[in-house]
Amino acid sequence: MPELPEVEVVRSGLAPAVIGSTIVNISVLDDRALTRHPAGAADFAGRLEGASVTATSRRGKFLWLPLGGGTSALTAHLGMSGQMLLRANDAPTERHERIRIGVRHPQHGDLAVVFADQRTFGSLAVDALVTDGDDLVPTQVRHIARDPLDPAFDDAAFIASVRRRASAIKRILLDQTAVSGVGNIYADESLWAARIHPETQGKALSAQAVRRLLGEVRLVLEKALAEGGTSFDAQYVNVNGEAGYFAHSLNAYGRGGQPCPRCATFIVRDAFMNRSSHYCPRCQRQRG
Q1: pLDDT tens across 214-268, in order?
Q2: Distance CA 1, CA 80 (A)
Q3: Distance between CA 184 and CA 254 in Å, rounded?
Q4: Where does residue 78 fall: left (phi above 0), alpha (psi -120 to 50 degrees), or beta otherwise?
Q5: DSSP bridge partners of 112
């Protein structure tokens, strides 16, 4: 599933092509791509055609394009395999294309923003914007916590919240109401870097340990951003269809049975919440 770095790469790639553009036409090829827009395809198209795009925004794994007037936004959640691709206006239909949005930009001319999704778990919607602190966010995003790269992220509140909880620290990192944008890959990588076992209870961690973990989360996310995200197959690509290469920098995730880069002990892979956890049993000893 695309996580914060992958979604941020898509957001930044869309920005120069769509900010200041006008949406001129909508083609909905598969209604399953509108599960977050229950009013259906006709309403979706009717609310977008003729609207201007004023910005590109993101929180956690959600991406949205605020529309002129400041009351609504085109909101996207990429699900497991969703892609937002920039194409020429007359480009052929993409494999797994679900929705095509034609835009007209004053400098770049006519372009197409294509939403492609192999597994059809992602969705687009037109959603109302509501106030959340100093931000305007779609109603579908309001329950999502800020992410660690957000300048308004409250470190002290997060540390205190972790230390009140009996849940495993990895489960807390994956809780999008506690901290957003951190999925399975980056949780494993951050815990490895901080030398914390994924099953350690939040309340067993000192404030210093949680602060250290938060710092490692930020370093991992920033490095992944610099390398264009993590791609294991063709499902995650940027707006130009190019893969990220952070997969070559992974220390724990996906390396079960391989030596730990730090101590050479074999990385363990355990089942976790219908997924897997990867950790070094020597560097990340469980406590508490």
Answers
A1: 999 999 998 888 876 543 334 444 455 554 435 567 899 889 999 999 999 999 9
A2: 4
A3: 10
A4: alpha
A5: 87, 102
Q: Domains in the chain, start-ordered, CATH in brackets? A: 4-141 (3.20.190.10), 155-279 (1.10.8.50)
Q: Is 263 helix (H, G, I), strand (E, B) or coil?
A: coil
Torsion of Cα atoms, 3 then 57 then 235 then 124, to 10°: 110
Could you write out the DSSP letters of every residue in 192-209? HHHT--TT-BGGGS-HHH
Q: Helices 207-226 and 184-194 sit at what angle, rounded to 10 degrees?
A: 130
User: For the whole model, what pTM was predicted?
Assistant: 0.87
Residue 260 is encoded by which pair of tokens? 């730990």
Does residue 18 contact residue 110 with C-beta atoms inside 8 Å? no
Q: Which two tokens stand for residue 164?
A: 């009140």
Closest CA to 6 of 88, 112, 77, 86: 77
Q: Please give the positions annotated as active site.
A: 2-3, 61, 275
In DSSP terms, which residues pair with 131 in a beta bridge?
A: 136
Round the average pLDDT of the chain to a whole number and report it: 90
